[in-house]
Structures are given as C-alpha cells and as structure tokens.
Recover the amino acids of this structure.
C-alpha cells in the first residue's frame, strides 16, 4: 500500500460514526474503556467534525441524534469506531459495507487471543467480511487513534498539543501511558496508533504512512508480532535514515511469547532473528516505555555527539566510581581529562575531598555559579571529551544563596540548549536528602525542564543508555553512507 | 582481630573529642561537611555523652569548653573525631597517643587519593604513627559513623530509630544517601560506617564485629577495594549463612577502576575474581544504592518463596507481555495457571479484553474488593505458583468507589504481611494517568508502606530482581547445608 489518502481521511475525519454507545451514556461517566469514552475524548481534544452515535435502542445519546445503523447516517463517513460485543461485530461490518464506510476502528476484543475455538472462528469470519468489503480495519482489540491535530483520541484528558513524535503500538495500555507521560519527557505526538490484532492494517502500513507524513519526525514502535517481517526490515532500514525509529519488540522471552498469544495472538518470533533485525536496520532498540520515552526525548533535544567519550560532573567519590562503572557498562568511555585541563581546574577546586580527573567530584561548584561556568567551559573544551553529563546535587544547589541557586539552574538550562563547543550537555538531578520539599523540587525540575527542550534523565543509567544509543544511531547512519559511496 | 571491646566503646562512646572545629562554629551553620557538623549531628541524634571541642585558638565552641589539645582533656576519651587539614593530621595523632585515645575517626582527606607525591608521603607518615601508637583509625577520608543507638552521626537530620541493618561503606556519600533514603524502604540501621582509605580498620574488621553484633541481622556493604581478599571471602561465606550479606563491589570496569584510585586509592581488583567471590560466598550482588536498599527491604519483609515461579496480577495486555519478558530476563518463571484455576477465574472475569493465564490482565479487580480477594486466593493456592507480584493500577483503584478503594489498599497490605499459603506477595504500583494528585498518592504509598513492613518496589524490574536474588540466596544456603551433611 502506497501513501493512502483514505488513511489521511481516517486520521483527520470530518464525520465519525460511533457504534455501540450505551443509550444511557452521559458526559463525565467513568466505566470501562471504549463506548462513550471515545465521544468524551474527542470532545476534550476539540474535535471539529460531526459525531453520529449508532444504537438501534436510542434516539438521542449525549445530545446527539442516534441512528439505528451506520447505513442510515445521511452523509459520507470518514471513520467508524466500533465498541459492540464481539458476537455483534460481523453484523456491524456488513452495515459499514452497506454504508460505504471503509475506515473502521474496532475497539471490540474477544477473538483468537482468548484461545477459545468459537472465538477463533468468529475472528476468521470478521477477516473474511473485511476482505470482501475492502475495509481498512484498525484493530480489532485496540484503543485506536490519538491524533491531537485531528481532535481524535481514546483516553481521558489527553494533551491537546501536537508534536513530531509518532507512536505505532500493538498495545492500548502502552498508548495510554505514553500519550499521558510523554509530556514529562518533552514529547508531543503527531499521531499515535494502537492497532491490536492487526486484521487488515499492520505496523508496516502505518509505518509507510509515517515515512512521508510531514507532521512526523521520529517514530516509536511497540510490536508484539509482525505479519511481513521482510517488508518491515526493508522499511525500517530506509525510513530510519531520515526519521529515527525507536522500536520495542516485546515477547521475546519464553513466557513473553506465551503472553503475546494471550494478548494480540501474534507470532512473537525468535530473539536471534530480532537481534539480526536491529543489526541490519540500525533501529534503536528499547525494552520499556520509559526507555522509549527517554530515547524520543534524546532524539528531540540532544545534538549528535562527536564521539562517545563522556565527562560526568557530580558530587561524591563513591558516586564518581559508580558513575564510571555505569558509563562503561552502557558503552561510553570516561577518559581522564587532559593534564592541562586538570591543572586549570586545580586552580579553583580544593584538592582534598575532590577529584578533577573524570568523573569530576566537585560538588561545591553547584553552590557557585562562577566556578560552575569555569568548570563546564574547561571540560567542554577538553579534546578528550565528546559530551557532558551534569548531576546537579540539589542539596548543594539549595544550600547556597537562593539567588545563586536560581542562577545555577538557569545556567544549566542554557548550556543544555546551546551544546557548548558542539558537545551535548544533559542533566541528571541527584539528592542525598529525603526532605519531601527537596523531592518535590527534584520531581518538578525533572518533569518541567524536558517540556522546555532540556534533556533531563531519571537516572545516570538512563542518560548513558540514551546517549550511547544516540551515538550508535549516528555511527550506523554514517557507516551506511560510506557503504553506499 | 576477634570481637573488640574497644570498637564497642567507639560505637557507643561516653566521651568524644572533636578536633578541628572552627572557633566561630555555631548551631545551624551550613558549610562543607565535617567539623561542627559532627557536633550538630550528634546533638540531633540525642547523644547522651560529653563532646569536647579541641581548638588551640578558642576557649569555647558552641557552648562547650574548648581544649587546646586532646591530651589536656581531663577524662578518658572513647572516640576522637578529626577534621583538621591533612598536613596537621600527624600532630593530632601524636596528641591522641599522648592522651591514650585510641579510637580515631579521621574525616580529613587529601592523601594518596590525590595522586600527588607529597601527599602520598604524608599518608605513609600517618600510617606509621597509627601503627606505632596502636591507633584504631576509621578512615582517613571518610564520614565515619552513624549509630542511632549511640547518638553518633555525621549528617544533618538522620533518623533516630534503630533497626537490624548494618552498612559498611567505603563511601561517605553512599552512607549519606542510604541512611536518609533507607527509611523509604522500611530500613532502620544498627550501625552504618563509612571507612574511606582504611589505613587501619578495613571492611573485614567491621564485618567481624557485625558477625556477633546482636543489633545486626542484615549486612550491606559498599566496597571499592579490600586488603585481605581471602579473609573477606571466608568471612562472608560464613557470616552470610546467618546474616544475609548484600554486597556492592564498585570499580570493576576499566574507568571505574581509575575512579577508585581517585577516590579511596584502593586496588579495585578484576571483575572475574569478584565473580568467583560471589559464586563461592553466596553473597547477594547489587550494583547501586537503590538495588541495595531494595534487597535489604526484601530480606526484612519478604518470606522465603518455595520456588521461583511467579504470578503477576495487573492491567493491560501489553503490560502483561512486558511483565513476562521482565520476569524471565530477571530469572523468574511465569508459568500458566492450572486449567482448574483458569476455569474458576473465568467465572467472574470477563473473557474479552482480559487474560487469566499468567500474567493476569484483570484490571477491573482493583475496583472490586470481592473479586480481588477471590482472584488472589485462587492464584496463591495454584500449585504452579510460588509467589505473587501485584501491580495495583491506581487509575482503577481511584476510579472505583472511594470506600472500596481504601478497602483494596487495606487488603493489599494485609496479604503482603500474611504471605497467604506460604507464598510471598509484593506490590508494584502502576498508573497511566499523569495527574499530579495521583502521582502524589503513588509516591506516598511507595514511601510509606515499606515503613509498615510492606514490600513495595519502584518497578517490576526491581521487584523481580530482588525476588530472584532472595530465591537464589536461600537456594545457595540449602545447597551448602546439603554439601555439609
């Protein structure tokens, strides 16, 4: 399937039919997911088109005229959202065919993923109807779409702002988590799609769309299985060169594979094959939503580092040792600063209880904006160093003068934005104190700064992992370019 | 060194000399660590003995008579705490010898860890004086002691309550973090010691003390290097049988080894040798303070599981897949529940959008206390299952009736305490919503419940890692017993 104007219509629909909304649905109700919650979510996102509820037992639902079926809606339908019980799905799909409505988001679950013979058979019937009618089914067994620019959503209180990140997910729960928590990582979405059992449209179809979607610059994927692995491999290899692809392939362990069967009934595939997939495509592998969010944040806000030699500025000798271990284990190098840099640093860093080699154990600089500036300048001009992780110690920042404290935070924001001397600078906040007020400050900084384009990581491990993957991504692309010359 | 009454005197001192307190020290001042901060920390912890400041330039410091030197203090001294600059240390130690004060906590840093020739030489002189005078030096370059039962501490606002966990740390920063954050994991300390460069007393000496210390039941260690590796191995192997030893050996990577040299100037040793150490001793390996705290919490509050087959109750099919992957990767098995259990569960769990195999994707039970109880009872009596991880979904808990919500939390606390059918139950809170209020509830539960003896983990990975290590610990001990028959 090449770029599909029908998909575009589904993503920015003018007219939506919602089938399976309870006749007693009212705004603000909280039941299970699906049904009237879709209307609520669309409304919250400022959907500008028309929504037509379909329910043969109602004449009006949530202030809208209800229709007995899709075919009786008196205008062309861009998208149908179906929340009926599984047994009723075939009839609804026949209705859609009669109405010439082709784009169908099927929320309805309860097919082959249950493992029960009659429901597996029901799934076969649904597939047959879809094929016969040329239906473009998103799902079944999925939460469907979150498209802020189209006013389309599946969950409560989703952010209204759009951004350049696309998410293709075989799990609705992951879509829920990512579309809510993404903002804590400075992530806004172009389009996010949960596609469940993938009866018709599969990850490769969505990927093809995102390859040319002008709204999308970074693509995140959560996959349990894929129908056409070879196609996915070729697509990812090509698209990844232009739009970084962050991919979580789940269900690769023995018990994970079994869990996939219970969830989307996909074939999970073998770990070795998928390892080869990443080697050949250069896609960025992650293993959790947090890692995925951190990686998307990294592509959004961290410049390409010239190499993988990192410097770490923090407080504490034990912390320095742990930092060096973590960096090394995640693939980064922590070389000693040059003798010249060390000599310059020793001019204002006391020798006892500190270290200026690397990692730098120089906590007092977090109390003194001048020393901090001088240190960062020296480290980022050091020829041994390609990037810098700063671990501001909140006990130290807040122990200083409060005017200094806010200057320190402002300065840190500034250098993270500006990549001094072409070297990325990122933050990991740290604290010894268990004071609830300090914890609150830390959480606030951690959540607010990424929204301003500042890469803040929840832990040093997370920062190193993301920076190494960023380095690897660019290294792979460079090797591809050389190969093709 | 066998059990040492002198060490006991140092840990519960009646008379302490503090050398190197500024003459202008006053309560509430916040400078760098050391000096008057020791007096403040002792006072905060309700120290019942007498503190004598030593400073030849003062007659009174912080309301106490100041003495020109240690020898002029007119009573026997149980512990000397030294915060003078490195160059002044030899003279202070001679003074201690003259005063017949043998237990010395040397906060002073700036010796071989600086890498500078004259300071290496200074370190040699200090060692010679210590040996000649029979001084039991804790340090130098260390934060020293945190002993709540003795009113002895090094940091601001330390918890006053004692508990069964000992911490032996070559890093003062780690001591600071652990003694503050430990309470979030339900951890209280018998004695925590930071011992820095270990001129005289090394980890093996402290370990020997803790082996017979009636206050101590679990021993945590952070080591950068060790002088007598063979001795440590024999000790750990023996003591670990009675008191679990959780050990973080840092500095095993290339850059970590270099960082150790800059910190405590220890020899870090090779990774392979330390791998053998863990295999032979059965000590529990960790690689961060968080892991150490989680492991101590686990030994405190989680019963020995009969095996390593885990069940996970949560919400979301994608989350179930990820859960199975995580459990498997951390060493646990996630078998399907028996057909009988599944059949019983299907009587009240809807088939569509759920799974009752394992992991259980049954989010609605978090809204209904009866269903939750019924499910937990079925899972914990299932012969395929040895332990249970519950991931209460706060969105679901709070979406239900608020009376039900508090019943759900109470019930979860109850089953975690009671290990139904001899099977441990632990919690990992989860949430889709980014609502600050819900985040606050989650953080509060995560921090408060461990203080009540409820094992709550920050992530599923953390829970699996700790449970697998707990299983491995008991398996090792059982194998040792069989071996010795």
């Amino acid at each position: 399937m090449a770029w599909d104007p029908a998909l575009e219509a589904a993503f920015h629909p003018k007219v939506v039919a919602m089938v399976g909304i309870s006749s007693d649905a009212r705004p603000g109700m909280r039941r299970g997911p699906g049904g009237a919650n879709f209307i609520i979510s669309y409304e919250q996102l400022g959907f500008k088109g028309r929504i037509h509820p379909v329910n043969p037992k109602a004449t009006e639902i949530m202030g809208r005229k209800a229709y007995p079926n899709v075919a009786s809606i008196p205008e062309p339908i861009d998208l149908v959202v179906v929340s009926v019980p599984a047994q009723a799905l075939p009839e609804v799909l026949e209705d859609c065919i009669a109405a010439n409505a082709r784009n169908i988001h099927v929320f309805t679950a309860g097919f082959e993923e249950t493992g029960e013979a009659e429901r597996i058979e029901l799934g076969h019937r649904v597939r047959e109807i879809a094929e016969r009618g040329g239906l473009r089914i998103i799902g079944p067994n999925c939460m469907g779409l979150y498209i802020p620019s189209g006013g389309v959503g599946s969950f409560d209180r989703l952010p209204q702002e759009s951004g350049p990140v696309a998410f293709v997910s075989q799990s609705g729960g992951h879509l829920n988590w990512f579309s809510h928590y993404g903002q804590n990582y400075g992530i806004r979405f172009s389009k996010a799609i949960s596609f469940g059992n993938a009866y018709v449209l599969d990850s490769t179809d969505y990927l093809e769309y995102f390859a040319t979607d002008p709204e999308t610059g970074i693509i995140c994927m959560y996959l349990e299985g894929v129908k056409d692995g070879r196609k996915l491999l070729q697509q990812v290899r090509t698209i990844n060169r232009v739009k970084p692809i962050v991919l979580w392939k789940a269900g690769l362990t023995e018990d994970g594979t079994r869990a996939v069967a219970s969830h989307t009934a996909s074939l999970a595939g073998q770990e070795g094959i998928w390892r080869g997939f990443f080697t050949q495509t250069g896609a960025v592998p992650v293993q959790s939503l947090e890692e995925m969010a951190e990686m998307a944040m990294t592509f959004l806000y961290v410049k390409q580092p010239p190499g993988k030699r990192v410097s770490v500025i923090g407080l504490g000798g034990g912390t320095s040792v742990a930092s060096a271990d973590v960096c090394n284990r995640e693939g980064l190098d922590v070389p000693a600063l040059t003798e010249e840099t060390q000599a310059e640093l020793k001019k204002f860093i006391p020798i006892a209880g500190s270290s200026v080699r690397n990692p730098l154990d120089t906590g007092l600089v977090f109390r003194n904006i001048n020393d901090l500036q001088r240190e960062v300048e020296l480290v980022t001009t050091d020829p041994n160093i390609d990037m810098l992780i700063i671990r501001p110690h909140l006990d130290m920042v807040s122990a200083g003068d409060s005017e200094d404290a806010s200057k320190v935070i402002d300065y840190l924001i500034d250098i993270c934005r500006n990549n001094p001397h072409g070297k990325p600078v990122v933050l990991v906040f740290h604290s010894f104190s268990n004071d609830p007020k300090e914890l609150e400050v830390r959480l606030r900084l951690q959540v607010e700064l990424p929204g301003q384009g500042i890469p803040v990581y929840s832990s040093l491990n997370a920062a190193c992992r993301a920076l190494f993957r960023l380095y690897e991504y660019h290294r792979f692309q460079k090797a591809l370019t050389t190969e093709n010359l």
About this structure: The first helix of chain A runs from residue 5 to 11. Chain A has three domains: 5-150, 162-301, 310-476.
